[in-house]
Every structure is written in structure tokens, then in C-alpha cells.
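Shipment paperwork, digital attachment
Item: protein structure file
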Amino acid sequence: MLAKVLIQRQFKTGHTPEIVALLNDLRSAAMGQPGYISGLTLMAPENPNKMLVIGTWQSLEDWNQWKANGERIRLESMLEIYQNGSTQYEAYVVGTGFSQ
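Attachment content:
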């Protein structure tokens, strides 16, 4: 079942080149993972240090395998140096579980 993953980060000011490079490395690495479909990076207009990544995966299992991947964890830990607070994750699957 198709999964959308929301990844929210709040960055410190003054490290844009390092942050962009690490985000690009994360995206490039994700693109080679089984189940990866696409990713979109958004910036809050009222706060350019606040970013939201929306990842699309073929399944929640594919996302969870990538989330546990050692390379992703390494890149994430490097990115956390430039963050205010921790990364926030929310995963959703397409459809509903409501019975009729």
C-alpha cells in the first residue's frame, strides 16, 4: 500500500550550504532504495529554516527499511548537527481503514 512520509526539520541559521548538501545526499541515497518513488522538499515561507520533506514509497515496509538503513542513519546524524531539535516523522498510507 502506497505510503507518504512527512519529515519535518528546524535548522539553525547560517549553515545553508552544508544543509543543502546533506539533504541532497539523503535524497540521492534514497533514490537507490527499493520502493522509493519520489520526494519533495518544502520550505516554510515565514521561516526559511523550517523544512518539510514529503517522501512517497511503494509501501510502509519499504520506508521502514530505508529509515533503519545505516547510511541514512549516518547522514541523518550529520544533519542533526545543524538542527534545532530532533527530526519529526509521520507516516501515512493511502486509503482508509474505516469500515462501512
